[in-house]
Write a structure and sequence with these properties.
213 residues, alpha/beta
C-alpha cells in the first residue's frame, strides 16, 4: 500500500505586527498544506535572518515562500489598497524571479474584486522611500518598493530550490504619501485588502502541489 507524500508547506512572510494581524484575521482555512505566517521584523537584514532560520529547520526546509505586507507604490495613478504582484524582486545583491504571477493576479481578482492589481518588478530598500527617491526607483522600471520582499525571496532561494512569490498592498503612492506606516491602524483600505488575500495565496500554493504533466 503506497502512501501519498506530505504536501509541501507554505511560509508566508511579513514584517509588521499589523500585517500579521490582518493575515490572521483573514485566515479561514483552505490551504493546500501546512501554512506558517512569519513576522520577520522590519528591514532586509531582519527578513534575511528570520527566513533563513525558519527554512533551516526540517519542518519548512522545502516550503514555498511568499512575501507579503504593505508597500509604497512608485507608478503614477496608484492608490492605497491597490495590489502589487511581483514578476521579480530586486535589491543590490540580485534579482529573484517569481513563480505563478498570472495565477496570483487571477485569484486576487476573485478574492478582492474591484481592486486594481499591478504587475512588474518590486524593488527593495533598507529605509522608507520618499520624495525624489521614488522617482529614481521608478526610472529603473520598478513599480513598487518595500524593505523586505527582495531579501525574503533571495534568502529563500539561497536556502534551496523552491517556488517564491511576492504580493504587496499599496499603502501609499506618489499622490497619496503617508507620514508614517502607523496611519494604517485605523482600518483603512490597505489593511482590509491584506485581510482578504489569503484565499489567493492558498490557491497559488495548491497549484504548486498539482502533478506536472
Amino acid at each position: 500500500m503506497s502512501t501519498q507524500p506530505a504536501p509541501a508547506p507554505l511560509l508566508i512572510a511579513c514584517a509588521l505586527g499589523i500585517e500579521q494581524l490582518a493575515l490572521r484575521a483573514g485566515d479561514r482555512g483552505g490551504a493546500g498544506g501546512p501554512v506558517t505566517v512569519l513576522r520577520t521584523g522590519m528591514g532586509p537584514a531582519a527578513a534575511e535572518r528570520s527566513v533563513t532560520r525558519m527554512l533551516a529547520g526540517p519542518a519548512l526546509r522545502e516550503a514555498a515562500v511568499l512575501a507579503t505586507g504593505f508597500c509604497a507604490g512608485l507608478a503614477p495613478g496608484m492608490h492605497p489598497g491597490d495590489l502589487v504582484v511581483a514578476e521579480e524582486t530586486r535589491d543590490p545583491r540580485g534579482t529573484t524571479a517569481c513563480v505563478g504571477t498570472d495565477l496570483l493576479v487571477k485569484e486576487l481578482g476573485r478574492a478582492v474584486p474591484g481592486r486594481t492589481v499591478h504587475t512588474g518588478p518590486l524593488t527593495g530598500s533598507d529605509h522608507v522611500v520618499r520624495g525624489h527617491e521614488r522617482s529614481d526607483l521608478r526610472a529603473t522600471g520598478a513599480i513598487a518598493v518595500d524593505m523586505e520582499s527582495a531579501a525574503t525571496l533571495l534568502s529563500a532561494v539561497s536556502a534551496g530550490e523552491r517556488p517564491v512569490a511576492a504580493v504587496r498592498v499599496v499603502v501609499d503612492a506618489p499622490e497619496h504619501e503617508l507620514v508614517r506606516i502607523g496611519t494604517v491602524r485605523g482600518g483603512i483600505s490597505a489593511f482590509r485588502v491584506l485581510r482578504s488575500v489569503l484565499p489567493a495565496f492558498f490557491e497559488w500554493h495548491r497549484s504548486l502541489l498539482l502533478p506536472r504533466r
